Amino acid sequence: MSRHNKVRRQDYQIITEMILDGSTVLDLGCGDGSLLSHLKKTRNVSGYGVEKDDRNVLASLSNGINVVQSDLEQGLAGFGDETFDYVVLSLTLQAVHQTETIINEMLRVGRQVIVTFPNFGFWRHRLQIFFGQTPVSKELPYQWYDTPNVHVLTINDFEKFCAHHNVRIIDRVVINETSRSINILPNLLGTLAIYRFDKEQR
User: Fold this and answer.
1) What is the 3-state secondary structure (H, E, C) of 49-72?
2) 91-120: string of b/e by CB count within 10 Å (b at 16+)?
3) Fewest CB within a 10 Å sphere: which of 105, 139, 148, 162?
4) SS3 content of the chain, % helix, strand, coil (to 5)
5) What is the rounded distance in angstroms from the CA atom of residue 60 to the CA atom of residue 76?
6) What is the pTM of this model?
7) How far apart, in Å, are the Cα atoms of 148 and each of 120, 151, 177, 201?
8) Which segments within the chain are labelled E, that is strand?
9) Beta bridge partners of 168
10) DSSP category for residue 181
11) Is the distance from CB of 175 to CB of 14 less than 8 angstroms?
12) Domain boundaries, given as residue ranges, for the chain
């Protein structure tokens, strides 16, 4: 199991609790399909994964997951409006270039969206920057030269983005290094953020 997949496991249970039984789910950047496989077993969901990497596509198929090989940066033109109850983007938001486009496409294709991302505002990350080092942690397990992350994203940054893009936050769960939920000073003490949201109706 890769370092990235080890981190992904932390948000599986919270994502599961946000999804209703029998729902339809689109998992973007689905990797080997383990999240969808988990949701099929625990929530009886149906749906698809979207994945670019050849090996992950084969792994998803071998895990019994319907998967479409596609680059998220190209959009979700193959899916109609509100095709899915939920669209999930787990630990990938910080690694995409066209953030606004992808979130708008997720809101078009899904009735609700769930995203998870490591919080760069965590106090240990700030401390490492203070001492002149790029943050490395369990949630950010990469060195500066091999990281897939292209955005430095904090909880405060994401909520400002939502406010400016007519996104209504339905649920927010922030956890720390021991996977405990954080309610006080989440941007300072939280390592991982999980949001469920939809398009604000006007």
Assistant:
1) EEECCHHHHHHHHHCCCCEEECCH
2) bbbbbbeeeeebbbbbbbbbbbbbbbbbbb
3) 148
4) 35, 25, 40
5) 19
6) 0.87
7) 14, 9, 21, 34
8) 24-28, 46-51, 67-69, 84-90, 110-118, 167-175, 192-199
9) 198
10) B
11) yes
12) 3-199
Q: Which two tokens stand for residue 190?
A: 């939280």
| Beta-ladder partners of 193 | 117, 174
Domain 3-199 superfamily per CATH:
Vaccinia Virus protein VP39 (3.40.50.150)
**pLDDT score at 4:** 44
pLDDT in tens, 88-107: 999 888 878 888 999 999 99
Distances (CA, A) of 145 to 141, 150, 201: 12, 12, 42
CB neighbour list of residue 201: distance below 8 Å, 6 or more residues apart: 168
Amino acid found at 20: L
Tell me: pLDDT of 145 over 60: yes
Structure tokens at 12: 């599986």
Residue with tokens 């998803």: 60
Predicted confidence (pLDDT) per residue in 169-200, tens digit: 999 999 988 888 999 999 888 889 999 999 97
CA distance 142 to 152: 13
pLDDT in tens, 42-72: 999 999 999 999 999 999 999 899 999 988 8
The answer for 54, left when phi > 0, alpha when psi is -120 to 50, beta otherwise, is alpha
